[in-house]
Amino acid sequence: MSEPWKPPSRIRNVAADSAAMPLPTRYAFAITQLLVLARRSGITSPTVSYAATAVTGPMVTALRSDRTLEVLRPFRRIAAAIRWRGDQPSLWEENHVEIVAYGVLADEQPLLRDAFDREFGAAHELRCLGLFLNRDTAPTAAGHEVVLSSVNDTLDAEVLRALAKGGTRMIAQRATGYNNIDLAVAEELGLTVARVSFYSPYSVAEFAWALALAVDRRIVRAAHRTREFDFRLDGLMGRDLHGRTAGVVGTGKIGAAFARIAHGFGMRLLGWDVAENPDCLALGMQYVERERLFAEADLVSLHVPLLPGTHHLVDARALALMKDDALLVNSSRGGLVDTDALLETLRAGRLSGVGLDVYEEEAGVFFLDKSLEVMTDERLARLMTFNNVLVTSHQAYFTRDAVGQIAETTVGNVVDYFAGRTSDNTLVPRRETGIGR
Ligand SMILES: NC(=O)c1ccc[n+]([C@@H]2O[C@H](COP(=O)([O-])OP(=O)(O)OC[C@H]3O[C@@H](n4cnc5c(N)ncnc54)[C@H](O)[C@@H]3O)[C@@H](O)[C@H]2O)c1
Fold it and tell me: Which residue ranges does the record assign to the D-isomer specific 2-hydroxyacid dehydrogenase catalytic domain (predicted)?
C-alpha cells in the first residue's frame, strides 16, 4: 500500500504564514494554497481532503477542541467555493458570507435561489426561511452578514439592534416599499439598507384592475353562485367604466400603468401627486386637488407610498367626499386607509365596492394560514362580512415576472454591497468598515 500523500513543507507552513490574518481568511488562504498545489500535482479530491485536514490541523487544535467540527464547517464551504482562474484561485471567495432570507414564499424560493446561484454559485450560502423577522425570530439571524427581508418583516429599532449585535451588516428588502424598516436606526447602527426600487409595475397595476373589475361586476359573488348551480343574476349588476372617472392617487410607475389601462377603458383621468408625470399628462390626465379627486372619481385607486404625510390619506373626511356608489381600490399600503372610517362608511351603505390588497394590520396575518384559528382582528373580520368588499393578502406584485425581477435585483443589491457601491436602490449606503470585500 502506498503511503498517504502528505503536504509538502511549504503547505505545512501556511498556518504560520497566515497567523496574522483573521480566522476565515486564514482558512481561505490555507485551502487555496493547498488546492493550487493539489491541482498542479494532479491530486484527486479525497487526498486533497486529507491534506486539507493536515494543513488546518494546527489551526484547529489551536482552537477549543469541542468546537472542532463547527470550526471545520466554514473551511469546507470555502473549499467548495474556490473558483479558478488558470492555476490561481479567486480571492473573492475568501470572504464566505452567510445570507438569510425571511418570509420566503414557496413560489418565490426557486426564483430567489436561481438568481442567487447564478451570481454566487457556492461562494456564499443562502438560507430561505418561511418565518417572518420580528423580535422573537431576530436571534435566528445571528451570524448572517446579510438579511433579505420581506414587506411583512418587522425591522424596528429593537429588531435592528438584535441584528447588528448578531453580526448583520446589510439588509436587502425584497420589495419597493420599506415602511417596515426604521432607516434612522439602521443608519445609526451602520447597517446598509437597499430595496428593489423597480420591478414590473404592471403586476400591481393589473391586479388593482382585477380588484376594481371584480368588485364592480360582483365576480366573486357570481362565482360562488354558479358553483352552487345558482344561475340567477339578482344583485350582480355592475356599471360600465367607460366614460366614468378614474382618480389615480399617486401617479408614479404603478399609478401610471394603472392610468394607461384606465385610458384603454375610455375613462376620464384625474390624478393627485406631488409631482406631475408627463406620461399621465400625455394620456389626458388632469391633476387636481385631492378633495376634488375624491369627490369626482367613480373609481379611486391608491398608488402613493406610505409616509407620515400619506398615513390615513383616505380618512373619514375623504370618504365623506366620495360618491355613494364609488369604487375604492387599495393595492399600495394598508396604512393609507383609516380602516375604522372605512368600516363606518360601509356600515352606512356607502361605496359600491372596495378592493383591498393591503390592510393596516396585515403583518402577522397576511401570507399565513389562519384558517384554523379564531380571528382576533375584529376589524378585518368585520371587513369580510361586507359582500361588496374583496380582500386579498398583498398579492398584487405576485407574478412570475415581478418576483423574478425582485430576486435578481435583490441579489444585485448584495453584489453592490460587497463592492461598496450605491445605486438607485440604496436607502442607507454602506459605511466603510475596513472589511476588504
Ligand atoms: N400590493 C403590492 O403588492 C405592492 C407592490 C409594489 C408596490 N406597492 C406599493 O405601491 C406604491 C407605489 O409604487 P410605485 O412603484 O408606483 O412607486 P413610485 O415611487 O414610482 O410612485 C410613487 C408616487 O407617489 C408620489 N408621492 C410620494 N409621496 C407623496 C406624497 N406625500 N403625496 C403625494 N404623492 C406622493 C410620488 O411623487 C410618485 O409619483 C409603493 O410605495 C408601495 O407601497 C404595492
Answer: 109-426
Summarize pLDDT for 272-315 with one digit per residue, the tens.
999 999 999 999 999 999 999 999 999 999 999 999 999 999 99
Which is the closest atom of ligand 1 to the Cα of 256? 16
- 332 Cα: distance to centroid of ligand 1 (angstroms): 7
Q: Which residues line ligand 1 (CB under 6 A)?
A: 176-177, 201, 204, 250-255, 273-275, 303-307, 309-310, 331-333, 357-358, 394, 396-397
DSSP letter string, 244-279: SEEEEE--SHHHHHHHHHHHHTT-EEEEE-SS--HH
Does residue 435 lie in a domain region? no
Report the alpha-carbon distance of residue 154 to residue 351 in Å, rounded. 33
Which protein residue has the closest C-alpha to ligand 1 atom 19? 252
Tell me the pLDDT tens digit for each residue of 131-150: 999 999 999 999 899 999 99
Whether 433 is in a domain gets the answer no
Mutate to test the pocket of ligand 1, among 203, 249, 273 (most ligand atoms within 8 A of CB): 273
Return the sign of the alpha-carbon dihedral for residues 377, 380, 383, 387. Answer: negative
Q: Of 60, 77, 94, which closes a domain?
A: 94
Q: Three-class SS of residue 23?
A: helix
353 and 212 within one domain = yes
Residue 275: domain span = 201-391
Is residue 2 one of the residues assigned to a domain? no
Q: Are residues 263 and 235 in the same domain?
A: yes
pTM equals 0.77
- Count Cα neighbours of 193 within 13 Å in the Cβ-side half-sphere: 26
Same structural domain for residues 174 and 303?
A: no
